Amino acid sequence: xxxxxxxxxxGFLGSGKTTLLNRVLKEAHGQxxxxxxxxxGEENIDxxxxxxxxxxxxxxxxxxCICCTIRDDLRxxxxxxxxxxxxxxLTFDRVVIETTGVAxxxxxxxxxxxxxxxxxxxxxxxxxxxxxAKHAQQQLTDRQEARRQVGFADQLFxxxxxxxxxxxxxxxxxxxxxxxxxxxxxxxxxxEVPLAEVLDLRGFNLNAKLEVDPQLMDDDHDGHGxxxxxxxxxxxxxxxxxxxxxxxxxxxxxxxxAQRPFDPVKLEDFxxxxxxxxxxxxxxxxxxxxxxxxxxxxxxxxxHQLMGSDLGPAWRDDEVRESKMVFIGIDLPxxxxxxxxxxxxxxx
Length: 348
Known about the structure:
Elements: E1 4-11, H1 17-26, E2 33-37, E3 58-60, E4 66-69, H2 74-86, E5 94-98, H3 106-114, H4 116-121, E6 122-132, H5 136-142, H6 144-152, E7 155-159, H7 166-179, E8 185-187, H8 232-236, E9 251-258, H9 264-278, E10 282-289, E11 296-303, E12 306-314, E13 323-330, H10 334-343
Parallel strand pairs: 1-5, 1-6, 2-4, 2-5, 6-7, 7-8
Antiparallel strand pairs: 3-4, 9-13, 10-11, 10-13, 11-12
Domain CobW C-terminal: 251-345
Protein name: Cobalamin biosynthesis protein CobW
Keywords: Chaperone, Hydrolase, Nucleotide-binding
């Protein structure tokens, strides 16, 4: 049976997660979606569409969607849903998990990697983070969990952009791109976003794409990972707004590129050692790699200590065989990473 695609919806308090969810639940989109939410969420789903029986874990909607709360832990709730679906008691095509406004999505994501029963039934489609544009700068400055939620995202949705000026929006986008250059950023209005742009994004899959804002990848002088922090001011000179302090954000990203292939054994040893030490601070990392010994791209990605890799398509003859990696984390030792990665390349 095909794996059940799962979307993880995270975001700051007041960013509009519930508005978006209510729309997903009410809309006649022809998809049967199971929504899992923490009952102790600060903002609950509209009570008029959710009449909860005492002790009833799962509520059926008129449009075929299901809503349920996490009972003991997320794992048991997911396993229970998969079992009921297999037995024909429940029908649903996909799952959306809403995390609480202050939660770190890391443990939620890890459940899908670490637990065999969950991994055999579910697949993360993408992690979507909703950002309240009006209060984001303050929240990003004050709260590490807000910065972490941005770092984990495959897709960032900005809500309430009508409440800020174009300059404020540009400054916010600039800051978000520094924290996470992988995630496309788009404005949404009161949760009015086509469902095709929320579901089936395949942002988490081991696909052969590594989308990083090209502006952040420019100006490579020597094939090493000189990422956007080095030449920030080249495209940042015109930014007069007082947002330059954001370089102090502890969650940031850097990009590593190399034109020589990696030695698979050295790279595995180095990455293994790095996640052992820095895993808790490594939020998301992904790469499309040129690996010695294979003509196919090697796609790898990870969350915290958990890494996975896959053989992608073959390198085309007209393609430059270049490895690209992006690391998003909390105060990661960039010099150690760059040195170790460079030493894991096949000698020139």
